[in-house]
Amino acid sequence: MDDSATAPAADCIGARGAPLRILIVSDAWFPQVNGVVRTLSIVVDHLRAGGDTVEVIGPDRFLNLPMPGYAEIRLAVAPRRKLARLVDAFRPEVVHIATEGPLGWAMRAICRKRGWPFTTAFHTRFPEYLHARTRIPLSWSWAVMRRFHEAGAGTFAATRSLREDLAARGFTKLRAWTRGVDLARFRPEPREAWDGLPRPVFLYAGRVAVEKNIAAFLALDLPGSKVVVGDGPAREGLQKRFPEVHFTGYRDNGLLARSYAGADVFVFPSRTDTFGLVLLEALASGTPIAAFPVTGPRDVVTDPLVGALSEDLRAACLEALSCDRAACRTHAEAWSWEACAAQFRAALVPV
What we know:
It contains 14 helices and 14 strands. It is α/β, with parallel strands linked by helices. It folds into two domains: 3-180 and 337-346, Glycogen Phosphorylase B (Rossmann fold, 3-Layer(aba) Sandwich); 201-332, Glycogen Phosphorylase B (Rossmann fold), CATH 3.40.50. The strands form three sheets. Strands 2-1-5-6-7-8 form a six-stranded parallel beta sheet, with helices on both faces. A six-stranded parallel beta sheet has the order 11-10-9-12-13-14, sandwiched between helices. Helix 10 links the parallel strand 12 (265-268) and strand 13. Helix 1 crosses helix 14 and helix 10 (277-284) packs across helix 13.
């Protein structure tokens, strides 16, 4: 599948014209901290800066409960009636449903009842996540995901390999929507010295959860030190299992960028991410990537100068040590949030 096959269809908004009233409904929104929230919030900022009026409806506006196993993720409880009132008050010209949670399903039902076309996005491989936790058959979960997305006018997916995978699973309305990186925030300097930690420093940053496959990294026999930046439900267990690893917890306000820049290799052990914004953040900080050759890494790490992909993750880590840090930064500079926001807007459909 090439990108021309996933270009916005004739019914889409297309090139920027008059300002729009854009409604985004997402089960992932502040105060959550994850790639979906980061992506949406940055795109929303760019859309508003361009003159659009954008409303994001998240679970913070509803009675909500913590997601089992993820206390930081809140799920709206019976949101449909209140959601309809909020939608009517905003009067959207376009609707985008970002996630497949309670809010996503409620907005899907509202749109279908009213005959409104809408777009969706495939951010997360929920079938694999559910299977890892509950052993629910993958075929069941994928059937539910297809039912959700195929009701819309288009499903946005970040990479060519993800779109190819979804097409093979029966998704028929795929549209390209890439990602970007904040090049001013993530840069090669200043760098975290990681005082007291032997070099080289191999670093993971992101949510510390079972689906991120972090144990596959921490179990490797590598020289130097391993560092994990971030928090999540798997942190306590991993700290007990790997006491020699340096866990920093959540870092922000410049500390995350310094962490990337101060590492010798960024290790991305996930096999289930649909993109991995952290890959671009690490590269923008001048740090090469080591990862498995799966969706996300194989779409970002397209130059051997900026990282190594292998089913032997240890070999990839050691190979990445010889990569070109300047080339990493140059590679990241090709990814623009401006282009990401423009592509998102162009593929929306009017209600």
